[in-house]
Please model this.
Amino acid sequence: MNKYQYDHNYNAEMLVSPEFKIPVMPKEFELATAYVPYQVMNKIYEPMKALMKGTIFPELYRPYVKKKHDR
Model:
């Protein structure tokens, strides 16, 4: 087993949607790797603006821009 995978015993029936019988998670799954840029506490958004943008730090704000080929 990969050292980055969970090593827990679980009941596969608990991971299946009862109405569709489709597994919610694969039996062997890997953890994701995240990248979070460093931030400096010099400027912050006002509380309401921070809620709308999803971050209090302006340097972490990365809006999703839909491309032409996206639907």
User: Anything to note?
Assistant: Helices lie at 47-53. The mean pLDDT is 74. Residues 41 and 57 are 8 Å apart (CA to CA). Residues 47-53 form the longest helix (7 residues).
